[in-house]
Amino acid sequence: MEPVDQQHVLSTLHTARPDIDRPKKRGHGA
To answer: Which among 2, 11, 18, 27 is least surrounded, fewest beta carbons within 10 Å?
Structure first.
């Protein structure tokens, strides 16, 4: 479950659009 979470976070950051994937994750580009 740990590697999956890390991969998910990396994928979201890699998309360069975390606000669209998760608007309540860190408020990046919000």
So the answer is: 2
Left if phi > 0, otherwise alpha if psi is -120 to 50, otherwise beta: which for 13?
A: alpha
Give residue 25's identity as a one-letter amino acid code: K
Cα–Cα distance, 30 to 5 (Å, whole number): 22
State both tokens at 17.
């659009």
- Give pLDDT tens digits for 1-30: 566 677 777 666 656 565 655 556 555 554
Q: Where do the structural domains in the chain lie, given as residue ranges?
A: 1-30
